[in-house]
């Protein structure tokens, strides 16, 4: 059944990575339900996210290639000073530094106490409310070309919080961007761009660790690879649907889902149906 479980978790990863509902929380909870209380683990989650980020690369390929090319040739004579793609390259770097530093320094907490279901429930509800407030009352007037260095840093700090299951990478970065006055489309696009180096970095690091320590994880490497491939296919569909959705609708349905799921987790913990660190 582990192969089926890996495939189902890959589907969950692909569906939830880009929605502001926390893919890591959903992977954790799905694993507890399907696998007799076992936690799929931070390593499995990080590696399967490689598949979802490959989907981002494909969807935003022209934009990403243009940014990289301009950034590496910015000191040449053919790139004008203040080129928007060069600036965007620097903004992505600025926004990636906080999560890179925190991810390296807080590895033990990420694998341990931060995976407590009490943390997950609290962050699902709390950051869901923050997302609603930012989406409801944000100025909604600024676009990608209006991005400033200080904004990139603030959004990067928000992305750092995604190390905690339940926060949601896209949810945290979108909330921060909306609170700074950016449109839903601009907020989501920048969230996608800054996730690429962060997720690939974490995913390949965890992949290297899993290769060095085989058998330490719940799933075999083959099962994890299959789950990653499944997450890639599902993520391609999810990105297109999300980008179409936010042009016409708010984030309210995702807020309601986060709060409802958080309440269910609190109830399950309170009645003793599940342990806070179940599966660890």
TrEMBL record:
It is found in: Cell membrane. Pfam families: BacA. Belongs to the UppP family. This is Undecaprenyl-diphosphatase. It catalyses: di-trans,octa-cis-undecaprenyl diphosphate + H2O = di-trans,octa-cis-undecaprenyl phosphate + phosphate + H(+). Catalyzes the dephosphorylation of undecaprenyl diphosphate (UPP). Confers resistance to bacitracin. Keywords: Antibiotic resistance, Cell membrane, Cell shape, Cell wall biogenesis/degradation, Hydrolase, Membrane, Peptidoglycan synthesis, Transmembrane, Transmembrane helix. One of its GO terms (cellular component) is plasma membrane. HAMAP family: Undec_diphosphatase. GO terms for biological process: cell wall organization; peptidoglycan biosynthetic process; regulation of cell shape; response to antibiotic. The chain crosses the membrane at residues 41-65, 86-105, 117-134, 190-208, 220-239, 251-274. Its EC number is 3.6.1.27. GO terms for molecular function: undecaprenyl-diphosphatase activity. Bacitracin is thought to be involved in the inhibition of peptidoglycan synthesis by sequestering undecaprenyl diphosphate, thereby reducing the pool of lipid carrier available. Its main location: membrane. The keyword Mitochondrion does not apply.
